[in-house]
Amino acid sequence: MDATIHHISKPHPVTGVTNSKLGTWLFLASEVMLFGSLFSAYVLIRTGSPSWPHGWTLLNVPLATLNTLILITSSVTMVMAWASLALKDLGKYRLYMGSTVLLGLGFLVVKSFEYGSKFAHHHYPATDTFYATYFTLTGLHGLHVIGGIVLNTYLLFPGSALWKKEPDQFLGRVEAAGLYWHFVDLVWIFLFPVLYLL
Amino acid sequence: MSGLTHEEVKHHVAVYIRVFAALMALTVVTVGVSYLHLPLALAIFVALVIATLKAGLVAAFFMHLSGEKRIILAALLLTVFFFIFLLIFPSLHAL
Q1: Which CATH number goes with the domain that contains A65?
Q2: Please, which of A33, A91, A94, B4 could form a disulfide with B8 given CB 3.0 to 4.6 Å?
Q3: Which residues have CB under 8 Å from A131's CB, separation 6+?
């Protein structure tokens, strides 16, 4: 049986895109629905409760702002990593991809300070509905950040061996990883105002 | 996005830098507005408009959706429809 996946580097004649890219976008569409269901639950819970605290009275807005800036910057370094590779500059690719990984780790460090301070004040997911939604939404997002860091680290070190053998395929992988990483940034762009600023 | 010329990639990079500046500026604006403590309905409106603007910039330029093939745009249009349905439908009874 032929187990080869076709059209991973060259566009499929019918769709005009590689199967890898189409698959990545369909995966992201399912991710939109995953986070969408939680956002929907949040709206339902908040509108249905007799009172709801403003996020800024309980959460650390300056730290979350810092994390927003970190994640936006990491999206830029990610897209620059892809552009460097498209210009066939592997050295610059490594520089930008390495920065993306470090910024992702920076986001988690800041987040762990936030979580740590909540735990120190005995605020847990079970404390009340506000903290339940806060920890669920930021926790699932944090898991996505960890997943992205693992993927990007793979593409930075062992995965980059593919560049010599199949440059087009490797460029496609970096672009797909970029789509995922920008999606993680995009989710945070909504989580930040919804949880912290309103 | 393979098979781009050197100049096309250079042009992309120039756009990325401008989008980066816009995203930073919009983040400062949305945080700044939150300190005004506007009435909740207005605060939600402003925050969501700015977030949608930022998300649009990320999707259009970093995710290369501007100029992407129709099949991907069609799949996303369907996703947006179901997302809005999912967001509004469960809360309808509360309105």
Answers
A1: 1.20.120.80
A2: B4
A3: A118, A123, A124, A125
Contact A146, A178 (CB under 8 A): no
pTM of the prediction?
0.95
Q: Give the residue from B91, B58, B51, B57 showing the smallest Cα distance to A196.
A: B51
Q: What is the CA radius of gyration of chain B?
A: 18
Chain B contact for A72 (CB, 8 A cutoff) = yes
The C-alpha of B49 sits at a distance from chain A's nearest C-alpha, in angstroms, of 10
Which residues are within 8 A (CB) of A160 and not within 5 positions of it... i.e. 6 or more apart? A90, A93, A94, A170
The reply to whether A44 falls in a domain is yes
| Separation between Cα atoms, residue B44 and residue A198, nearest integer Å | 7
Q: Tens-digit pLDDT profile for chain A (198 aa)? A: 677 778 888 899 999 999 999 999 999 999 999 999 999 999 999 988 999 999 999 999 999 999 999 999 999 999 999 999 999 999 999 999 999 999 999 999 999 999 999 999 999 999 999 999 999 999 999 999 999 999 999 999 999 999 999 999 999 999 999 999 999 999 999 999 999 999
Contacts of residue B55, Cβ cutoff 8 Å, sequence gap at least 6: A186, A189, A190
Answer whether A99 touches B (CB < 8 Å): no
Which residue range forms the structural domain that includes residue A27? 19-197
ipTM: 0.94
CA distance B16 to chain A (A): 7
Instruction: Verify whether the Cβ–Cβ distance B51 to A43 is below 8 Å.
Output: no
**Does residue A7 form part of some domain?**
no
What the block records as the tokens of A164 is 């010599």
Residue A183 belongs to a domain: yes
